[in-house]
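Quick one, T. Sequence first:
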Amino acid sequence: MKRFAVFPALFLIMILAACSESKDVENAESGEFFLDSIYMDSVEANSTYSMIHEIEWTGEEAVTINSFDLVKENHEPVTFDEDGMAYEVYGADPLKQVGVYSEDHNIGAVEDISGYEIDDTGRIVLVLRLGEVAEDPHRAARINYTVNGEEQEVIYDWDGYKQFSTEES
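Structure tokens:
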């Protein structure tokens, strides 16, 4: 008789395991972001630069970016007064050349980041106005996006943002 009591317990455990596994598969299937590895070397304080990233989306469905922000510890926004950095973020044509460009370089057409759609790869353009910027081990990018009608958010932890700093001009 004890044998029959074990089967319902095993059956319940298998159902719970299958449900948690399917949730993980569902989250993995929605996709994730990858940013290229651009590092800014020897940038001067009190200047403006444009950083053009390649951004890849691995999901099967297109993703719409609602916002892209630089954040620091406790996910507080990066500000010019506290962090020496002001920025504007745009989306751009996926064929745009990636890299870091000085203020006098024309980077061409950009579009509002809010509503920027990525089906496979795209470009994120950060126009950075810099004061004195120190390295910050907590600096990251926060991407708020919509995929499959569901709004989501991810913190993109990348060494390039953490190690970014300026030199005196």
